[in-house]
Fold this sequence. Notes:
The chain has a two-stranded antiparallel ribbon with strand order 1-2. The chain is mainly α. The chain contains 18 helices and 2 strands. The chain has a domain at about 180-250.
Amino acid sequence: xxxxxxxxxxxLLLILAGVILVAGLVLRMKDSKEDDSGxxxxxxxxxxxxxxxxxxxxxxxxxxxEDFWVxxxxxxxxxxxxxxxxxxxxxxxxxxxxxxxxxxxxxxxELVRAGKREHxxxxxxxxxxxxxxxxxxAAESLYKVEELGDEAVMRERFVxxxxxxxxxxxxxxxxxxxDEKALAFxxxxxxxxxxxxxxxxxxLLGVIGDETDIEPLRKRIADAPTPLIRAYVENALACLxxxxxxxxxxRNLGDEDPVIRTYAATFAGDARAASTQVRLEAMLDDPFPxxxxxxxxxxxxLSRTPR
Length: 307
């Protein structure tokens, strides 16, 4: 070592070593990096980012009513990707003319998500209606934007909603405000025999559950009644940080069923699964429109520093 320090080329050797080290770090960071909070975020090429943004912008403007929910998903993707200002002028005028209670919830939800919090009142009004047609969509939308609307009405839908999905979505909204009884009900549904109860509870627990839900969810993979429900369970495990669940989610992105691919792309965002970037980029050319939209959403979502 003394010889090296005395050698006239020693400073150059130090510089060379530094260059090699930095180059190695750059190569490792090519596809992802950690932000200041330690979260892994994707690094997209300008072409990929533009392509994802274009898919969402075009999806927001789809004119046919049968594409309504694809349009709402595009709105969600734009907001999560930092383009919520594009959503508001397109969706807000539609609130005044929309007559369908479920679609009204979709519009209000995405406007709330984009920053127009006053439209929580629309969701609360639909949840209060005597006609139950829009109740589940209202409860689900309030859960997604982390609001209760009218807490007494939400609790009534949870306790006496009848339909398992309505009860679970109301429970999810209540859990986000600290309700332990609602969380216990979701976990009972996770372990129960109702297929829809398992599917919806797995989704919820992937977001609002914790590590204690991992083993019970693993046990449901083998007896999941349909491939889609099994995928929900697998994707939820990925969201909870389970390595095997993450591998399964990655496989689901390539499933022959376009619905399974689409949900996997959505869950990849919840799981902050930056390791799925290559597969998500390939899905930007998926023949199924909603799969393209959800892949674009997650790519933009995970390429931004979490707020």
